Amino acid sequence: MRKLIAANWKENPRSEKRALELFKTTAKAANSPRAKKTTDVVVCPPFVYLEEIADAYRKLKPATKRNLAIGAQDAFWEEKGAFTSEVGPKMIRSLGARYVIIGHSERRKYLEETDEMINKKIKLALKDGLRVILCVGESLPIRRRGIAAAQSFVKGQLKKDLKGVRGVKNVTKSNNGSLIIAYEPIWAIGTGKNDSPEDAVEMARFIKKTLKKVRVLYGGSVNSADAQSYLRYNDIDGALVGGASLKAAEFRKIITLS
Ligand code: PGA
Fold this sequence. Notes:
Order of helices and strands: EHHEHHEHEHHEHHHEHEHEH
CATH architecture: Alpha-Beta Barrel
Bound molecules: 2-phosphoglycolic acid
Largest sheet: 8 strands, parallel, barrel
Strand content: 15-25%
Helix content: 40-55%
CATH topology: TIM Barrel
């Protein structure tokens, strides 16, 4: 089973030039024989670089593009209109991007994004033909109460975020794999304190039991030294990588080892 490794650049890097360089080295790594055989790679830059990177993407050889795609880190729930600074899924698609991350815990925390907002975003993004990477995950106080408490929290998030999303009970079949869940325990993001692979796979299995057939990624401080300990499980379909995706050599190792 191929793995999906998504690079979430967050608010990085600091210039367009650096973003393009990072994209080119990432594309080169994705094009290595090992990565081509085992891994699909999605690069999610900040909106401000998306056009330039989509342009660089378009110029790549078709064979290079086969296991590489571009995504956005968010998309609004309205197509267009008087919504200052927002970007709709159709705009994202028009650049050639195919994926969007929705419901990242940093947006839930700093932008106070609610499950209702996330639900509306998912519905429009799927309708407009983007593949959605929905992020879910519990906080540390919840996790301290045990894995069952974490599972119950994640189940609640999935229920609210996916309310009324068509075909969600059998996502892979009816939506053709267009909904992907990233399990990212909040306390593991950007902290260097990963979840244990055993607990992560248990959660991945729980999510698959809840949603049937959906692909599940693990995210939270993944690096080249530990990526394999997650990816070796069939039930972990890939990783959402933040910090390590900004270091070309590190990210190359992650995508060529999987
Ligand atoms: P991290 O971020 O790899 O830096 O922990 C992952 C994410 O937030 O998607």
